[in-house]
Write a structure and sequence with these properties.
This protein has about 550 residues and is of the alpha/beta class. The protein has 17 helices and 14 strands. The longest helix has 19 residues. The site of zinc ion (ZN) has 6 residues, from loops.
Length: about 550
């Protein structure tokens, strides 16, 4: 890197807009959405989608509720052209969905584009040419006037051909490509020149798309550019102002949100931000950001995992694990303190009957709203604490450890996970729990137990093994467990007493079993937990005593 970057790079000059209004505004309604997955997204793929992949993605976009979908650049390749024809001729386009096509200001391309649209019900013809100083100088070698003339000629060529699309509802869109790097005065001038040809009205508006083709500034600058255009362009009411951001500086979402505050009506973007270089705007994020503020975006992402699957299959791209809302890990907490807070927050939410205002720590929305499961929220690695361990045992296996036992088992599990040096599954955690408690059969093992109670006095007989040697023992107490404790001590176990006892069912059905947790206190004051499972609740308790005793060293 340069020691003096200012020798090579310059800050983007601010827009002169001292009374900017967008910072005071709040969003209260969704914009019109337009997916550009099948065009901008597709153009960015090493291997562009074929017709059947485009069809699968198109259908998925329709199911999400997109009413405007840019389906391609039909003059660019046979596949693109064929895709349009398939969509139209095979009746894939619902009546309320408008397909959009992109074209440059060249007669042969416009001709082919119009041909590809024959028979469609609703279309948007999207004309673009690039307008920034670098594009004018480097790519076109043209003056501003010549660039403007290109746009006007393109607009005229389209206007001349609209009549051929009889029976088709044709709407028009113009993009001064590289708008955000263009002087706002020139962007206004060229856009107004196109408006002069297309003559939009408040009843028949044209779409003026103002692309952040390459992010060159902070998102507040883009917002200023959008507000400036909205306030200075003539006949604003005859325009639908559209945003189209890319993500070069990592702020495509922010630029779009601020652009909406600045008065834009429409947003173009792609699922999960696929697109050239760092990608297009991730439309899922903007839509879900509105949703988490209580505004329904008008798009349905209730099954983001399935959508992600279609996207990955069709584009060959993958969604990173930390992609907002859709990534594998975005609703997951590994850290113990986060897990604890989430566990308590979810318990509170469930306690309220899962109704009211969502306010669960660390979770911006209910993962269930986008088809994610609570079970993926808490995952356990060496950073996790007792809360996460307990949550997983409870949510996956219904093992509801007493609080005090969580304090005992948490560090045991944590050490084991630390030794493994990786994340562990719920099944593995259960295995650790079994090894530590339920499966402990040494030095003591219970082979048979029987207890009878008369007038509140219980007598028991137990067949035991101690380090493999069989023993018979009897005892008496005010309950079967108390009687068993006496029998054990009589058989040579160290003196101990039951300090705590809990039990609950594990699942339902005829083979249902119960789990008992018992804490014992030894003479020297040390405590140990034990746990056991049995179809007979009394036996589960008795076996839990053996489990706890086997953990005394
Ligand atoms: O990024 C861009 O500017 C574009 C235009 C063609 C709208 O994709
Ligand atoms: Zn783009």
């Amino acid at each position: 890197m340069l020691s003096q970057p200012s020798q090579q790079y310059r800050p983007y000059p601010p827009i002169e807009l001292p009374d900017r209004r967008w910072p005071q505004r709040v969003l209260s309604a969704p914009p019109v959405w337009c997916s550009v997955d099948l065009r901008d997204g597709n153009q960015a793929l090493a291997v562009p989608m074929n017709v059947s992949q485009k069809l699968e993605l198109f259908d998925a976009l329709v199911r999400c509720g997109f009413k405007e979908i840019e389906v391609g650049f039909p003059s660019a390749s046979n596949t693109e052209f064929a895709f349009n024809r398939t969509l139209i001729e095979k009746g894939h386009i619902p009546d309320d969905v408008t397909i959009q096509v992109l074209v440059q200001a060249r007669e042969d391309l416009i001709e082919k584009t119009c041909e590809s649209l024959m028979g469609a019900k609703r279309v948007i013809i999207h004309l673009y040419n690039s307008t920034s100083p670098a594009q004018r100088r480097v790519v076109f070698g043209k003056t501003k006037a010549e660039i403007k003339d290109m746009a006007v000629r393109g607009a005229e060529m389209i206007r001349e051909r609209i009549g051929r699309l009889a029976g088709t509802d044709v709407r028009l869109q113009y993009s001064p490509e590289s708008f955000s790097a263009t002087e706002v005065e020139f962007a206004k001038e060229i856009s107004e020149a196109v408006m002069g040809v297309w003559e939009p009205t408040a009843e028949r508006r044209m779409i003026l798309n103002l692309p952040d083709t390459v992010e060159v500034a902070m998102p507040n600058v883009y917002a200023d550019q959008i507000e400036w255009m909205g306030r200075n362009i003539r006949d604003r009411e005859s325009l639908i102002i559209s945003l189209h951001t890319h993500n070069d500086r990592g702020t495509g979402v922010a630029a779009t949100e601020l652009g909406l505050l600045a008065g834009a009506d429409r947003v173009e973007g792609t699922l999960f931000g696929n697109g050239e270089r760092t990608g297009n705007l991730d439309i899922v994020t903007v839509a879900m950001n509105l949703y988490m503020h209580g505004i329904h975006p008008g798009l349905d992402f209730s099954n983001l995992n399935a959508l992600r699957g279609v996207y990955e299959r069709c584009t060959g791209m993958s969604v990173p694990p930390r992609q907002p809302y859709a990534g594998e890990l975005v609703f997951t907490a590994f850290s113990g303190s986060h897990q604890d807070a989430i566990k308590k927050g979810l318990a509170e939410w469930e306690g309220k009957g899962c109704e009211g205002v969502w306010d669960v720590p660390y979770l911006t929305i209910d993962p269930g709203d986008v088809g994610r499961e609570y079970r993926e929220v808490i995952r356990v690695n060496s950073q996790s604490g007792k809360g996460g361990v307990a949550y997983l045992l409870e949510s996956e296996f219904g093992i509801d450890l007493p609080k005090d036992m969580q304090r005992e088992f948490g560090p045991i599990a944590n050490d084991a996970v630390d030794r493994l040096g990786r994340e562990v599954s719920g099944v593995e955690l259960k295995g650790m729990f079994w090894d530590e408690y339920v499966g402990r059969e040494s030095p003591w093992r219970l082979n048979h137990f029987h207890a009878d109670g008369v007038d509140g006095v219980f007598r028991c007989r137990a067949s035991l093994e101690r380090e493999g040697v069989e023993l018979q023992a009897t005892g008496e107490g005010n309950g079967p467990i108390a009687a068993f404790v006496q029998a054990l001590v009589a058989a040579g176990a160290p003196e101990f007493a039951v300090a705590s006892y809990r039990e609950h069912d594990l699942g339902s059905g005829s083979g249902a079993s119960a789990i008992a947790y018992i804490q014992i206190r030894c003479e020297d004051g040390r405590t140990r937990w034990g746990a056991a499972v049995d179809t007979n609740i009394e036996l589960a308790g008795v076996k839990a005593v053996v489990s706890a005793l086997n953990r005394v060293d």
